[in-house]
TrEMBL record:
Chain segments annotated as transmembrane: none
Single GO biological process annotation from the record: telomere maintenance
Catalytic activity: ATP + H2O = ADP + phosphate + H(+)
GO molecular function, one term: 5'-3' DNA helicase activity
Pfam family, one: PIF1
DNA helicase Pif1-like DEAD-box helicase domain sequence ranges: 842-955
EC number of the protein: 5.6.2.3
Cofactor(s) listed in the protein's UniProt record: Mg(2+)
Name of the protein in its database record: ATP-dependent DNA helicase
Residues of the Helitron helicase-like domain: 176-344
Domain of life: Eukaryota
Keyword list, A-Z: ATP-binding, DNA damage, DNA recombination, DNA repair, Helicase, Hydrolase, Nucleotide-binding
Length: 955
């Protein structure tokens, strides 16, 4: 196996965990050891076979390390026994020795004539296919001592005789692994008893399944390209024959569980539940308990520990979680029926609340995600949405549901021991600096908390639970801990499920985004982001989402078995139906990219879901009472028939894929789809009061769906009292940039007098004519020109706002593309002099670099140079010389730097972020949004050279 095994996790005395990060390769090493090193792995079968046994024992630990540590010494008899056993039973070992013996004895002769590629002692690894039937047996000779076959692509499902008459006749790799890791009554499974090797087998198996899927996705990239046809056409019109760099991205579709798009879609689904049901009320974390009595019972007569059977832990956790969700959905949350029993009559106040507030909770929605802890155990984050009638009105009602106190040992000994076992945080802090919660010598979870006599809510909206100083303590690791160290829990749930179940109240809007981000943050993701830019070279690949996925992946044995069993990673109740839509006559469908097989088989499905909604409106009266987004509550989509049918059972809600306001009409169509009931055609969608509007935007405006920008007008007026005209223009440009204005032209008409503040004065100064007067049109024109400057600096233009007036070309400098004129606006004779002066001062080394780069630029060869040198070695000097050389020829050089300070050092320097629109907040979906036909793109095309100072600082 060639992945990165994360061994840092196995420090300390906790059970062994096998964890892998990044991509997994399967390789075969060379047949002979590199000179000087000892033989290992398959080399042992060939090298010095007389001494094979001692070679074997030295290769894994060996005498060198045995001298320092006494714990490693291997039983030579066992090794001898295993060798004999494998030699006599394993066909693969037999044939391997034979082939190897042939080759080794014959190595100087014509090896290349054989049909086997042999690496003798190069030390390089060679990749072998995981799909080879003998692969597993070769990788795990001890698990498959008879060398039996592993997965092959053509295993038929049971009962299927030929591969033609069924949709999916053959067994998938996932099914194969799921089959192999079952216990069977009549047979002993060596695999399931292999402990650490079994963990490795699970991870290995899962990475094989995943890489097979990812390989398939990589092959389908052409189909997944989601750039609109219109853009492609534009690009072709520009004379470009190679359209492959439009929208150049390797896409990992949202149907791929665990990928970034998948996570985003689930986040949006969860947010749409919020739209329907309001904020969630409870946030519950349910963690797998490896000491559950069921696990103990199962392992009772075996030498195994819970961590040796991650598959069993996962299955049991899934069973318990399902039961838990069933409890919740049957409205028995927190023991509704017996809830009274669990409201402890400690004090009169609580019993009063219990009487006043009958405990009946009706659940309307829930969402959960499965995650795997650092040590691999699964846990689930659950958000509960209560019916509006049962929401807890104030914090006083929390106490019966959530407790953060140690119960009295005499009153409820069972609960006491459960709290002690599962719900006590720590000891951490001064008592135990090695506690995993400790970050910078402080508890990252802020334990111990403060004592507090009543439950309340802090200024950030987070609840502070009651923790009375009542003298109840528990001992843990020799430390006495009190109510300040209790993790909030629910008594009923804790007793019923006997695991760490943290219950938190969350009725505050401020915490909701944090919460959903948290539960949807995706699998263990490294926090760095690498962006590969596509600016300086065309053959450089743009963002590869599959690669990014691999780079951030960690897989433990538990997660591997969870995924091999195909258990849900996300769950929502009710279901959220993702509704696609598109503009009339357009091919681009605004929806989450569909399941890849579906896209391949039926490209028209997504569009027909939208159009057949309108068809359904024609025939069904009931349908006309609903908007598109409400439609799934009463109707069911039948994907096979491509029609909507009235819903008979169940309930689900709809969600329309969000689109950026920059997309214009699509954005406004989406707003209308949330409002308009029962339209039968696109015309009807934009019909307001019997009148067909010319655009979806106008329809939105006529319906009063868009704010009437009055607040923005007021904001500009208000700011004009204290701020400069430049600031006001900047403010207006920012409003345009953020697309928050529904009718920018009306804001402009209402505020231009404020926005033009100072324009006249500047013009008087510039033309050195203090008596200059300008008419209204001239002032407007100059003001618009100034605003356009601000927009251009942010890579957009007034042209992008359809109804905004555009400054007169005469007053705007000669060319339409301000960016290019700006870059060409240098005093060439001056620059030539400067260049001559700079060039003679170059050192030999600098001169060589200069000549190399200039030759490449002049021959238009294209290429990337990376110049590395310590501070003060004259890099900036070199940049200036090169810039002067190229600019004095009338060509364009873009000087950018990763930091603002460095960019100031360069003539015409800009930060790379502003120049190439690199998003500020980088995530796995980030890329530079440069439209192929924008001014910026034209600038980049005309550019001869980009000098990027401090390039490695971009991260
Ligand atoms: Zn702590």
């Amino acid at each position: 196996m060639g992945g990165k095994v994360d061994s840092s996790i196995n420090k300390g005395n906790a059970p062994y965990i096998f964890k892998l990060s990044g991509q997994n390769y399967h390789s075969m090493g060379s047949l002979l050891p590199t000179p000087g090193s000892r033989p290992k792995f398959c080399q042992l079968y060939i090298y010095d076979t007389e001494n094979e046994i001692s070679n074997r024992s030295t290769s894994i630990g060996g005498p060198t390390s045995a001298s320092t540590s006494t714990s490693i010494s291997y039983d030579l008899q066992i090794i001898e026994f295993l060798k004999v056993m494998l030699d006599s039973n394993n066909v693969l070992v037999k044939s391997y020795r034979m082939v190897a013996a042939l080759i080794v004895g014959d190595i100087s002769d014509s090896v290349e004539k054989r049909d086997i590629v042999v690496q003798t002692s190069s030390g390089l690894l060679q990749r072998i296919s995981e799909l080879h039937p003998s692969y597993l047996a070769l990788q795990y000779p001890l698990l498959f001592p008879y060398g039996d076959d592993g997965y092959r692509v053509d295993i038929l499902h049971r009962g299927i005789t030929s591969s033609s008459n069924s949709k999916r006749p053959t067994c998938t790799m996932r099914e194969f692994f799921a089959y192999r890791i079952q216990d069977r009554d009549q047979s002993f499974s060596l695999l399931l008893n292999a402990k650490r090797l079994f963990q490795q087998f699970l991870v290995d198996g899962y990475t094989m399944i995943e890489s097979e899927r990812l390989f398939f996705i990589r092959k389908q990239q052409k189909i997944l390209r989601c750039e609109s046809y219109e853009k492609l056409r534009n690009h072709q019109a520009l004379g470009s024959t190679d359209i492959s760099n439009v929208g150049q991205r390797v896409i990992l579709p949202s149907s791929f569980t665990g990928g970034a798009r998948y996570m985003m879609q689930n986040y949006l689904d969860a947010m749409s539940l919020c739209k329907w049901f309001g904020y969630p009320d409870f946030f519950i974390t349910f963690t797998c308990n490896p000491k559950w009595p069921e696990v103990q019972r199962f392992l009772k007569d075996t030498p195994l520990h819970p961590e040796d059977r991650p598959d069993i832990l996962c299955r049991l956790f899934k069973i318990k979680l399902d039961a838990f969700i069933k409890d919740l959905r049957k409205n028995k949350i927190f023991g509704t029926v017996q809830a009274g029993m669990y409201v402890y009559i400690h004090t009169p106040t609580i019993s009063l609340i219990a009487n006043f507030y009958p405990i009946c909770i009706i659940l309307c929605a829930l969402v959960y995600t499965i995650e795997f802890q650092k040590r691999g155990l699964p846990h689930s984050h659950i958000c509960l949405f209560l019916h509006a009638d049962c929401k807890l009105p104030t914090v006083e009602y929390i106490d019966p549901y959530i407790s953060a106190e140690i119960p009295n040992i005499n009153e409820d000994p069972e609960l006491y021991s459960l709290v002690r076992e599962f719900m006590i945080h720590g000891p951490c802090g001064a008592e135990n600096f090695n506690c995993p919660c400790m970050v910078d010598r402080k508890c990252s979870k802020n334990f111990p908390k403060q004592f507090c006599n009543h439950t309340s809510v802090d200024s950030n909206g987070f609840p502070l639970y009651r923790r009375r100083n009542d003298g109840n303590v528990v001992g843990k690791s020799g430390v006495q801990l009190d109510n300040r160290n209790v993790v909030p829990y629910n008594k009923y749930l804790l007793k019923r499920y006997q695991a760490h179940i943290n219950v938190e109240w969350c009725n505050q809007g401020s915490s909701i985004k944090y919460l959903f981000k948290y539960i949807n943050k995706g699998p263990d993701r490294a926090t760095f982001a690498m962006v590969q830019n596509n600016n300086d070279s065309d053959n450089n690949d743009a963002v590869d989402e599959i690669k990014e996925y691999y780079d951030c992946r960690y897989i433990s044995a538990c997660e591997a078995s969870w995924r091999i069993f195909k258990y849900d990673v996300h769950y929502r109740y009710p279901a959220v139906i993702r509704l696609p839509f598109h503009l009339p006559g357009q091919q681009v469908i605004y929806e989450a990219d569909d399941d890849i097989e579906d896209v391949l088989d039926r490209p028209s499905v997504a569009s027909s879901m939208f159009t057949s909604w309108m068809k359904c409106n024609e025939i069904n009266v009931e349908a006309r009472k609903l908007t598109y987004v409400e439609f799934p509550t009463k109707f069911v989509w039948k994907p096979k028939l491509l029609i909507w049918k009235p819903r008979e059972v169940g309930y689900s809600i709809g969600r329309i894929h969000p689109v950026s306001p920059k997309l214009g009409e699509a954005y406004f169509l989406r707003i209308l789809l949330n409002k308009v009931k029962g339209p039968k055609s696109f015309e009807e969608i934009r019909t307001v009061n019997g009148e067909i509007c010319s655009s979806f935007k106008d329809a939105c405006y006529n319906l009063g769906l868009l704010d009437d920008d009055k607040e923005y007008i007021d904001a500009i007026k208000e700011a004009s009292l204290s701020r400069s005209g430049y600031y006001l223009r900047f403010l207006f440009a920012t409003m345009l940039l953020s697309n928050s204005l529904s009718k920018p032209e009306s804001v402009w008409e209402n505020t231009w007098e404020y926005l033009s503040d100072g324009i006249l004065y500047t013009q008087q100064q510039r033309l050195k004519s203090p008596a200059l007067s300008l008419n209204e049109d001239q002032i407007k024109n100059l003001t618009l020109f100034e605003i356009e400057q601000i927009l251009l600096r942010n890579n957009t233009s007034l042209k992008n706002y359809r109804r905004m007036p555009y400054p007169d070309d005469d007053s705007v400098s000669s060319s339409n593309n301000r960016l290019i004129t700006e870059e060409l606006d240098y005093d060439i004779p001056n620059l030539k002099n400067e260049f001559d002066r700079l060039f003679v001062s170059l050192t030999d080394e600098q001169r060589n670099i200069f000549l190399d780069i200039m030759t490449t630029v002049k021959d238009n060869k294209g290429g990337v140079f990376f110049i590395y040198g310590y501070g003060g070695t004259g890099k900036t000097f070199l940049w200036k010389t090169i810039s002067a050389a190229i600019r004095s020829e009338g060509e364009i050089v873009l000087n950018v730097a990763s930091s603002g300070i460095a960019s100031l050092l360069l003539t015409g320097g800009r930060t790379a972020h502003s120049r190439f629109i690199i998003p500020i907040n980088l995530n796995e979906d980030s890329y530079c949004r440069i439209n192929p036909d924008s001014d910026l793109a034209n600038l980049v095309r005309k550019t001869s050279l980009i000098i990027w100072d401090e390039a490695p600082m971009v991260h």
